[in-house]
Amino acid sequence: MSFNSLKIGELTAKIPIIQGGMGVGVSLHRLAGAVGRQGGIGILSTAQIGYQRTDFEKNTMKENLIAIKEQFEKAKEIAKEGIIGFNVMVAQLGYEKIIKRCVEVGADVIISGAGLPVNLPELVKGSKTKIAPIISSSKGAKVLLKTWAKRYKRTADFVVIEGPLAGGHLGFKYDEIKTAINNMDEEVKKIVKITNEYAKTFNISVPVIFAGGVYTKEDIKHYISLGCSGVQMATRFVGTVECDAPDDFKERYLNATKADVEIIKSPVGMPGRAIKNHFSSIIKTQTIPIKKCRNCLLTKLCNRKDIPFCISEALLNAVNHHTDDALLFAGANVYRVNEITTVKAIIDELTR
């Protein structure tokens, strides 16, 4: 079985694979550019994207906005004619400003989750940038697509379903995760049906992409058989020379066993999947004092007086060579990453 190309409006990716956004600092220009060059869609994570810039600690937002342009242009240079976009969390402080900056620099696509991106169409109005919400349930799909249709007289350009095997923050409650794993295929079919109804209403094609636990060619075939047009993969691409994360971060992936993968409680109240380490152990019983606030999340999600640790600090430690004192987000299949290879080799394996 050969896979069809992925068409999103006038954009065409030769292969139906989107590289998932991974922050902080894991999917930047090298990884996104390499995936775009191989015919997939490369995604830059905007989460503290400017963390390597000189003035980041003093002028965080300013440096992040500068880095959005720098990283996009570098990724485009690598990708040549390939498709490059951004992942932007609704929960980010300055969400609207970040979205508008991504549009301004010429983003081909924007994928937005960690909350329902209710006003996303308004923020990209008049641009060629294609938009996709990340949703985890048919209920979420109904609410969002209905809102966009009523308020903006449009629908999504594509939809990303994030399942319960994904890395990082999950769109499920703790006690829902096991049930969601068992029921996800049926939920995918429901979301595809809902999406197709709105696509028909607006007389366009709206591809549905599945993310979370996708690792092999057989996985891709499976989700296409359920009605999806492609998949989003993140964890597997960490094991590449092109991945922007440092080597000691990658080593944590290479050394992870199945037993090392656990669900942690994020300070924003959501469950998250990560690799066990010293940090994940102590946050179960201790509160880690916040030394500095980088204003990364909306205040309603992050009350500095109450949260057990700073999410930005924990993720920055992961890419600043403090991997034992860091939050190491990873998908459920991280234990299968056992070598450093290349983006081309992975995509060749998945598509040949």
- Helix-strand topology string: EEEHEHEHEHEHEEHEHEHHEEHHH
Q: How many independent structural domains?
A: 2
User: What does the radius of gyration come to?
Assistant: 19 Å
Shape: globular
Could you give the count of β-strands?
13
- What's the CATH first level of the largest domain? Alpha Beta
Residue-averaged pLDDT: 94
Class of secondary structure makeup: alpha/beta
CATH architecture of the largest domain: Alpha-Beta Barrel
Poorly predicted runs are none
What is the count of helical runs? 12
Q: Strand percentage, roughly?
A: 15-25%
Oligomer: single chain
Structural description of this entry:
The protein has 352 residues and is α/β, with parallel strands linked by helices. The protein folds into two domains: 6-245 and 338-351, TIM Barrel (Alpha-Beta Barrel), CATH 3.20.20.70; 256-335, no CATH class. The protein is 37% helix and 16% strand. It is built from twelve helices and 13 strands. The chain has helices spanning 29-37, 60-79, 95-105, 120-124, 138-152, 177-201, 217-225, 235-238, 247-255, 278-282, 311-319, 343-351; strands spanning 6-8, 11-13, 17-19, 41-45, 83-89, 109-113, 130-135, 159-162, 168-169, 208-211, 230-233, 261-265, 271-275. The strands form three sheets. Strands 3-11-10-8-7-6-5-4 form an eight-stranded parallel beta sheet. Strands 9-13-12 form a three-stranded antiparallel beta sheet, with no helix packed on it. A hairpin with a 2-residue loop joins strand 1 (6-8) and strand 2. Helix 1 packs parallel to helix 2, helix 2 (60-79) packs parallel to helix 3 (95-105) and helix 5 runs parallel beside helix 6 (177-201). It is globular and about 55 Å long. The N and C termini lie close together (9 Å). The model has no long low-confidence stretch (mean pLDDT 94).
